[in-house]
What we know:
The protein has 23 helices and seven strands. By secondary structure, the chain is mostly helical. It has two domains: 20-415, no CATH class; 423-559, 2-Layer Sandwich (Transcription Regulator spoIIAA), CATH 3.30.750.
Amino acid sequence: MAWTNLVPAIGQARAYRREWLTKDVVAGLVLTGLLAPAGMAYAAAAGLPPVTGLYATIVPLFVYALFGPSRILVMGPDSSLTPLIVAAVLPLAAVGTDEAVALAGALGILAGVICVAAGLARFGFISELLSAPVRYGYLHGIAITIIVAQAAKLCGFSVKGETIGGQLRQFVDGLHEGHLNGWALSLGLASVATIVILRELSRKVPGTLIVVVLGVVVALALDLRGKGVTLVGDLPRGLPSPALPDVDWSTTRSLLAASLGIAFVAFADTSVMSRTMALRRHEQVDSNHELVALGLVNIASGMFHGFPISASNSRTPVAESVGSRTQLTGIVAGAALLVIAVAAPATFRHLPDASLAAIVIAAAISLIDIPAMVRLWRVRRSEFVLSIAAFLAVAFLGPINGVVVAVALSVLNFLRRAWKPHTAELVRVDGLKGYHDRARHPEGRVVPGLVLYRFDGPLFFANARFFVDDVQRVIDARPDPITCLIITAEPITDIDTTAADTLHDLVDQLQARGVALHFAELKGTVRERLERYGVFDHHDRPAPARTVGQAVKQYLAAQRIDWVDWEERRTGDGDAPPTGG
Length: 581
């Protein structure tokens, strides 16, 4: 059982069905036509030799097939990581050099080690640190960054720069200096349009493969090399031997921050796709195991002259749509790519760089989700603003800093909501069971001298002062003299030591005003914490009531208040009391 958990391929092999074989083999062969050009395209977009995209595809397919927990998940280079790699590598090395390859490999290994360590420490929950609105903004910033950078390659030249502003300036300068190649631009625009249109018509149509074939045909028919269009050319034969990248310790330390951001984004992408596939197939995937597997494939990629990778959001659905059932699909695709690398390195000799740029731009366009942004604007403007802030962070600060800002925005948004949760004074409403928010039911009746106060969130250091101030505000707003405050604590899931100290102070303040403080509906764990904090020790008060109704009855009996509830005024006609929210 332990081996099956560590190496899921063993369990898949034991449970494999013969009728799946044809589907897995066909899916693997179909994927081959997409993986090769896509991998090379992302490598070129990252400023690396196109062949490194094959290395970053072939080896991880085999590694994930052994250690990956998801039955259908295609690993490989992806668009969301490309700007992060560019931002980390190009300031330290020239485009396409051996030094750039070594740095990219070191990034992959560092990100992989971080993922493995985080998975073993059971940090699989970290993928939730990017809220959906912030994630939209981050991905849109990445998409625009990619499109701007690849627009130059679409025109026949290239630009550097981490931010959109820097890339735009270099792009305009390149146009002014006459670097535009009309043949490359025409082919690139036609290729982007072909991929986008075919994607809208049917996900099953391999638009990327069609663009590759058309690019090679056009390059041969029109002699694009003679017209100044850059072609991929022959690839090095075979795979390189596994080795640690030749990067000194000082440079390695400078890559740590970037590798941490890459690890986070790679796992965020992978976990979303993994969960999506698992839900569709009614399966369960351990996020910690997924994190370890992602780390292993990145380490393997870096040791074979590859670069950081994640689950592919474009090729995984293709594998599913053509019938993939297990990771045998990845093994077949990896084997086919290995044959190309060993026996047919001239396969992509006549493929224009503009075609690769078109593949990357089309992938970036797929990251843009306008309907989601429209929905955010319509249903919650504050989250729309957060999304735009994340977008601007990537655009003006660069993708690496953008990751940090995106995570910080998500955490700050959580703290903002927890800092000032919804609060309510509760009232009794004729005809409705229970106690309800006075703001929603102004017709409700209050119990004389009693405030029923509800705090809809955990009570901790960040909101403890707000809690005290809000309680005082509610008490001061009542025209009648208040002698008792009952906190209906069912929504309070936790109370930390800072909040407990604040509660001690609140009790003293209320006692000075002649107001007693009681609790109702305390959760068992919260009550135990309050007992440990000693909140109940220094003041003579009854034990927390099990329900709000019980607390109110205790108050009425203790104060000898003659207050008639609406249910007590009923005529006794035998009808069940109405219920409501």
